[in-house]
Amino acid sequence: MGKLSDADSFESGIQRRPANVPVKQPETWGEMFKAWPKTTLCIVSNEFCERFSYYGMRTVLTLYLLNVLKFSDSVSTIAFNGFTVLCYFTPLFGSIVADGYVGKFKTIFVVSIVYAIGQILLALASTQNSESSIHPWVDIVGLVTIGFGTGGIKPCVASFGGDQFEPGQERMLSLFFSVFYFSINAGSMISTFISPIFRSKSCLGQDSCYPMAFGIPAVLMIVATMLFMAGSFSYKKPPPKDNIYGEVWRLFKGALKNRGKGPKRDHWCEYYLVTHTCDNDEKCQELKREKNDQSVCQKVNFVDDVKSLLRVLIMFLPVPIFWALYDQQGSVWLIQAIQMDCRIWGNTLLLPDQTQTLNAVLILVFIPIFQVIIYPIIGKIITLTPLRKMVAGGVIAAGAFVVSGFVQIQVNKTLATLPPDSSAYISVMNTFGPEYNCTLNITLGDQHRSLLPGESINDNKHLQQKLTFESKEGSVSFAIKYVNCAKNPANPLLTYTDTVSGGDIFNLVIGPKGSYMFKVDPDKPTEGTGESSMSVTVQVDDRGNYTKNLCFCRITKDTDKDHPCNPQVPSDFYYYEQKYNDGKKEDFQSLLPVIDSKGISSFATISKFKPLKPGDWNLYFLNETAKSVGMKSLSKTQIHVEYTNVKFSNTKQGGVRSLIITGKNGTYEHYINVLVPDNTVSILWQVPQIFIITVAEILFSITGYEFAYSQSAPSMKAMVQGMWLLTTAVGDTIIVIIAAFNIFSNPAVAAFVYAGLMMVVILIFALMSIFYYEYKYYTGVDDDDNVLIEDDAISTALVKDAVDIGTAHHNNKAYEDEWDTRF
Q: Which residues cross the membrane (predicted)?
């Protein structure tokens, strides 16, 4: 969850110390406490609140896109991962502005305000219902603003914290970054657990509470800004320095311009030196004075640093594929979780968006386990190098998606089977009750089905049974025979003819009054709190063409018998209303004629499919419009309801049902057709894939960041960090492109393809590691004087346990053979 890249830019920014000054570090906890810069507490607190704000909002974002903005699965994936692309691309601009123009402090302060504005916009937009005209434009503006805000902060906060330490405080600096990284994961872990709880509650007359889920992160972002500013008068604020991106760009441009001039060079970047002179170069003159040596040239060193940068960046090429897998946790895997059974015991639910908490928890648990136990044990068998760890991490990430693919295969068995665009599937429902007790024999072309009284026919993927009728789009004609009836219908219809559209599913209802057929919405609920989808059809003798409203009211032991329905408690009141929200909303899809042998015998009022939470429910006829935009929800004493004699216990999740009410007042009968199966795969089956992807993150992400940092020269570390963040943006761009072109209609196939792609890329990465790359560690030690330079203190903290910091460059002699040297 808290990627190491979220630890922002681990660049200390501490000024270089003369080489002959010895390093004096505080030794005891007491000495460190006295010397500790207290302003870093403001920075750590700021980071905790900012990460809580970011991950709290991001955790519920996909569900918000699905349920409030009404985006499809693919569009929600595009929007979610597109937002992530923005969040990890904008740090490049934040770094350029902070390092080259206004400094870190001003950058953090200004973009924190921008960040908070974005969170506030999103929270305010979420207070409006899904039909509001402000959607999705205000939401998009808010998300884009947040993306630029977090991008501006990301490369600055950690390095600004490092700026507060004095030369010689490397141990304290290492401890600071440990606390800093812990604050990132603590903020993300807590927010990913409680934000789904906030959004699952009812508030502001809505069944969910996204205003709270987004509002609390907005408040935390304001708090984060205030905490940061609390130390403003005590911070050390180094002035902006030369922009490293600009320097590298000028070197590239000069090298390409000079290519072919002068003597042949070993590397194309060295052609920059053809036209370079030190006389007018301030940095060269400064280095000559510092070294007291007129032969040295800063640009020669800088060219070597850029060459080290390019070596590392080439090894970055396979990294985006890892992020293309990892970052599907918040989009594709979340959508998979919505399609699973969220019950873990009794009525206790593990909400789909809460599964992301497991990643943050496992990260905090696994880091010490790997460092203290796993790495030492494996190190006794083989030589552990960073690239070997990364290759293992890539293979394990592929394994996570293989597991995800097999889980999705089981989930697919509970999803609707959609017909081809030129065909339709037709389910049939027999509503002959005990009075008639008729069995139906139905024929469509060469397809024959038999239905017992009260029975429905639907496909059974678990048993691989195809039971629904299939027809080409256009006119369909069913032959109906009534068998073994206790009482014959008055005017039995022997042939029912209607029209179907391609790519759709229909429900044909046959009963004592005749037959009718309506289109089914096969989409499962996406609210993420265990709902099923329910449509209600009213076909009763004593109400004619029913044009009023319906409502499901939750029944508990405390239900008021005189006033059982309370519209002011949204989680206990689900309604189907005619023309509400200023006439823009309608919950009834059609009024259909019921056809018997003499023509139209009556009418059936058919509602749209709407989500219904688990629980015990009674269905009522509702006379008033109880809820609508622009009015306060009526109280339980202001509405008048009539019981339909329908009691329904909704104990399962995710199914799509059609409920039919027939008969007369006092003898109403109801029938339920489960058109799409309930979710039967437990959400706990996602735990293995989350466990595996977290192991992969430890091996690939954390090790990769350490590798990149330790292998880049001190002057290139800020740029390497920016490029590392950019690999996340590129990885999420891959997700966006695949979703935009809708390449895979089956999520299981997509998971296996991603796993295969990861394996191919990691094989290439392994070959590059063996035949291309040679380790060269930069540990913050000056080559000439063998003295530690504080400008690279964080690099020392990261690699001090892996290499001997008594030498400037690792010469690979510790490895036993050529394979170990390169891989």
A: 78-98, 105-125, 137-161, 173-198, 210-231, 308-326, 358-378, 390-409, 683-702, 723-745, 751-773
Q: Which residues on adjacent β-strands are paired with residue 428?
A: 457, 508
Which residues does 311 contact at the CB level (< 8 Å), separation at least 6? 711, 773, 776
CA-based end-to-end distance of the chain: 28
Which residues, other chains included, contact 800 with Cβ-Cβ below 8 Å and sequence gap of 6+?
174, 779
Strands 439-444 and 469-472 come out as: unpaired
Radius of gyration of the chain (CA): 33
Of 140-154, 211-225, 767-781, where does mean pLDDT reach its minimum?
Answer: 767-781
- Give CA 357 to chain center in angstroms: 12
Alpha-carbon distances, residue 696 vs 270, 366, 610, 661, 699 (angstroms):
38, 11, 40, 53, 5
* CATH number for region 4-241+317-413+682-822: 1.20.1250.20
Please tell me whether the peptide bond between 136 and the residue prior to it is cis, using omega within 30 degrees of 0.
Answer: yes
pLDDT of residue 572: 93
Q: Is it the case that residue 797 has pLDDT exceeding 50?
A: no
Contact 190, 52 (CB under 8 A): yes
Q: What is the DSSP string of 714-754?
A: GGGHHHHHHHHHHHHHHHHHHHHHHHHTT--SSHHHHHHHH
**Cα(823)–Cα(809) distance, integer angstroms:** 17
- Closest-CA residue to 570 (of 129, 200, 207): 207
Q: Helix, strand or coil for residue 543? A: coil
Listed by start position, the domains of the chain span 4-241+317-413+682-822, 423-676
Paired tokens of 270: 């060295």
| Residue from 481, 439, 609 nearest 534 by CA | 609
- Cα–Cα distance between 704 and 617 in angstroms, integer? 54
**H-helix or E-strand containing 251?**
helix 244-258
CA 232 to chain centre: 35
Buried b / exposed e along 466-496 (16+ C-beta atoms within 10 A): eebbebebeebebebebeebeeebeebbeeb
Q: What is the pLDDT of residues 275-319, one digit of tens each?
A: 898 988 888 998 888 889 888 898 998 999 898 888 888 888 889
416 in Cβ contact with 427 (< 8 Å): no
Q: Distance between CA atoms of 163 and 746, rounded to whole angstroms? A: 50
Q: What is the rounded CA–CA span in Å between residue 155 and residue 258? A: 33
Closest Cα partner for 692 from 739, 749, 753, 751?
751
**Distance between CA 404 and CA 752 in Å, rounded?**
8
Helix (H) or strand (E) holding 32: helix 29-35
Q: What is the mean pLDDT of the chain?
A: 87
Query: Both tokens of residue 382?
Result: 């083989």
For residue 791, pLDDT beyond 50: no
For residue 506, what are the β-bridge partners?
Answer: 426, 519
CA distance 539 to 385: 72
How confident is the model over 378-401, as pLDDT tens digits? Answer: 999 998 888 899 999 999 999 999
8 A C-beta contact, residue 500 and residue 41: no
Contact present, 157 and 47 (Cβ < 8 Å): yes
Cα separation, 309 vs 720, in Å, equals 7
593 exposure class (CB count in 10 Å sphere: 0-12, 13-18, 19+): middle
Q: How many CA atoms lie within 13 A of 666 on its CB side?
A: 0
